[in-house]
Amino acid sequence: MKKVLVIALLIAGSLVFFHGNALAVLGAADNVPGHDVVFPIICEKNGSLNTTWAIANVFSSGGTANATVRVYSATSSFLDSSNTMSWTPFDVESGDCQTLVATLSAADRTALEKTINSVVYYVGYVFIENNVSKYDERFISWVYVLDLVKGFASGFKGFQAEGWAGTSTLSEYSPSDVKNAIKGDRLWGRFILMNNNADTFNWLMLLLGDSNATAQLYYRDENENTVVTGNIALQEMNVLNVEDNMPGGLFSGYPKYGYILITIDEGDSSYDTVLGWMYQRYKATTIEGSWDAIHEIDRHCFVC
Questions:
Q1: Which fold has domain 186-300?
Q2: Whole-model pTM?
Q3: b (16+ CB within 10 A) / e for 165-198
Q4: How would residue 256 be classed by pLDDT, with cut points 50, 70 and 90?
C-alpha cells in the first residue's frame, strides 16, 4: 500500500512539474518565462557605463515571436515604440541603452537625462511587449550594467511578467485580467562603501508601478545604529545614490557597511508593483582589487 501511495505521489508531482506554468505564481517576481519583459536602463551620456540585455525565446511553438520595444522615462512618460525585436524559435536577441537612446529624438533623449554626482546619465526603463498574444509566456532575460573601460560588469534578471504586464501598473494580469501586483512596502538593500573615490558608489534602483509614492530610508550600520531620512518623493524609475541620501552621524569615515530599510507609501490602497536592485561598486587603487555587484532587494508587505 505504501509503495502504491509513493508512486501516486510521484505521478502527481510530475504532472504539476510538466504542466506549463503551473509552478509559476502571479504577483511574484519569480524567474520563469514571461509574456513581457521589463527592466531599468541607465547609461552615461558622455561616458562608458551602459546597460545591455539579451532576451531568449525559449519555446518553438508559434513560429516567429515579435515584440515592441517601448521606452519610458523615469517619470513613466511613454517616449518611443519605433524599435522592434523578432525571434525565431530558441533565438536570442540583444540590445543596449546607448544604441537605443541614439535612435530617439533629441527631446526624448533630454527626457531621459538625470544627473548623479555631477555625471549625466540616461535613466528610464524598457518594456518589451510581446505582440503575439496575451499569456504567450516564452521570454527570459539577462540584463547587465557594464563599464568595461573601467573594468566593471554585473548582471541581473529583468522582470519576466506572466499572463501579461500592464504598461502603467507593471503588474501581472491573469487569464481573467485580474491584476496581480508585485507588492512590497518594506524593502531591504545592502550597502558597502569602501572609499570616497568618484567611481566608488552604491545605487538603490527602484522601479514602481505608481508614480505618486514616497519613501523613507532607514540606514543601519553593523552595530545596530540607525539614522532616518525625511520623506523622499519617488518617480516610477529611481536611481538613488546611497551616500548622497545618507544622513550624518552614522559613520565617521570609510568603510561604511550596513543595510537600508526602505518604507514605501503609495498614498492609497492600490499597491502597485515595486521592483528593486542595489548596484554596488568599489574602485580600488589597483584594477585587480576593484569589484562591482548587483543584487535584487528583499521585500515584505507590512500593510499591503
A1: Hypothetical Protein Tm1070; Chain: A (2.60.290)
A2: 0.89
A3: bbeebbbbbeeeeebbbbbbbbbbbbbbbbeeee
A4: very high
